[in-house]
């Protein structure tokens, strides 16, 4: 619960113009709240990796892995997809993956990772996000990717000089979802 509280405090500070600017110019200086949220994601991931890798005994590493699995299940129940992915990315890094793990741990991680399978444009995650009952903290990395692709793939004006309303509508739906997520807690 504390991770989710910290995530939401950071997530709520992100302003929509930061997200839209990021799609055009990925500047840490212009997007301080977005940068802070991204750093928070990276810090969680680094912390988990470090906790596991600093343990010399397999038994101690497995205890931490068991705790991580419990945390992941809790984050999923709370619809905190951002920290969910931060922890999964830590567990999926090469230095952690190469360690010897009991089958129960590798099976659990495979099952928990199925949510973020990147085939078909993260279809399983997108479905889970669409079906999630608020409150919810989405994985911001995919949102930023969607914004960037929408901006790059949809010029502001059509060849005839008219406004590209379809492209603007796509951006609006992304922004509206973010606002809905930010205002549910």
UniProtKB/TrEMBL annotation:
Which GO biological process annotations does it have?
Answer: small GTPase-mediated signal transduction
List the molecular function annotations (GO) for this entry: guanyl-nucleotide exchange factor activity
Q: Which Gene3D superfamilies match?
A: Ras guanine-nucleotide exchange factors catalytic domain
Question: What region holds the Ras-GEF domain?
Answer: 1-185
- InterPro entries (UniProt xref): Ras-like_GEF, Ras_GEF_dom_sf, RASGEF_cat_dom, RASGEF_cat_dom_sf
One Pfam entry for this protein is: RasGEF
* The UniProt record lists the keyword Aminoacyl-tRNA synthetase: no
Keyword set, alphabetical order: Guanine-nucleotide releasing factor
Q: Does the keyword Disulfide bond apply?
A: no
Its recorded name reads Ras-GEF domain-containing protein
List the source organism: Trichoplax adhaerens
